[in-house]
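Homework help board

Subject: predicted structure for assignment chain

Our instructor gave us this sequence and asked us to write out the predicted structure in token form, then describe one feature. I got the tokens but I'm not sure how to describe them. Can anyone check?
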Amino acid sequence: MIAQFAELLSAFLPPKVHEASLDVLEHVGLLVRNEKARDRFRRHGCNVDGDAQIVRFPRHVVEEFRAMIPPSFTFNARNEAFSKSIPRDALVIATASSAPDILGPDTGEERRSRSGDIARIAHLINQLDGIDVFSISVHADDAPPDQFSLSRFYPAVKNCWKPVRTSVIDEREARQIIKLGSEVAGSQERFMERPFITFGYCSIVSPLTMDFDSTEMLMFYAENKLPAYGTLAPIGGISAPLKMSGMLVQMDAEWHAAAVLAQMSRPGTPLIYNHLPVVGDMRTGAYSAGAVETGIMAMALAQMGRYYGYPTGSYLGLTNSKISDAQAGYEKAISPTLAAAAGIDFIVVGGLLDALMAFDFGQLVIDNELSLMMKRFRQHLSFGELDGVFDEIRSAGPAGMYVGNSETLKLMRSSALLPDIADRERREVWKIQGSLDAHARALKTAKRLLCNPNAALIDPESDARVRAAFAGLVPGDVEIPENWRSLIGDARRSRRTGRRAAVQLK
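My token output:
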């Protein structure tokens, strides 16, 4: 059976949104600060006011170039077994990215993030089945001069064989990252055959503005056949209409302006209909990352993407909470649940607190469990056939039990999600195990997983090529405090204690 996705918009609204978007592009246009982009728009039929730097898009131009957008997008991985394509691979989930700070896993205190943190997060990502793409979570405050982005990508690629994604500042940095990938792959030709690094960029500065730098990078990625996609991040009431229908129209127009430029740069450039819509808290102007409206907008965007035939994505599962508490829990749960129900293809979630400002290892493990729940939910948006159901119910009969029948035994490990962090024990067992809350359990799990050998570590020969190519490069190694290693034994003892307690309490 084909899944039926939740639809926020009535059937007649997507074409109306599209028409309104075309009106905005044709009659209002965008401020385009990049001269190369303005020239490209002019050569392909757009109306350009050079003095005002305003570009207006005739409808036929938009329709011509949006028809070139491929219906899928692939995140290539260093280990090809971990590559993911949308929409083919159902629901693909990435970590949220680029927090400047991190909560120290031992102290809980906020500090500036470093390249070694990236190495540890990368190693952890390999072991979290809910996370498909490592969108590099933090900055690297210890980066040498002229190696900021390199100091982020190197520890990520070195320690993670899943797809790696984040942004760079300019073309110079992008070429550094291409060289990094080429050294790891063995040659630039081999890297370009299947580039395992994906670039991100902010395609539009809302409202209706294409700045110089991100526009330059958009064209560079398209021209050089590099996997990349942009994210729109308007703030309702500040840089977009507060009325959600108005925000939707503006975002759609902005996205298509950037998409048209990508197709003018190279027809057939893969893109994601990707957004981070947030409303401003009109009491203070605060950036409301955890607002339910983000999920509502993602539902509408997922429906619009299906109307167009584009792969869809959104930043979701964000929170304004400064710690992993109840607020973080409900804010992180609501928006991805809404978007998953609406059929979105790609969700950026995981690990960040404080409106994308700080990373937390325990929160990443919790968000991994949330991601597994989202995938489980999407897997069963449509129920299976009823074959054999009657016979199973008849076999058990009134007052019967299903615990030992063949179907239960067959499905007991796969039919229901079995969480690692959520506690389902009796209170007495929970007390015996230390009365830990979810974050404390998750943080212990993170530290224990980080003590495992890293099967994804690049081979010494490739690493030597990288380090020879970039003088002064950060180490990129996973460093583990010795006291964390005791947690491996603690975990085993805790499981044994829990089992004994459960038996005693019966």
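Reply (TA_rk): Your tokens look well-formed. For the description, you could write something like this. The chain has one domain: 1-384+427-506. That's the kind of observation they're looking for.
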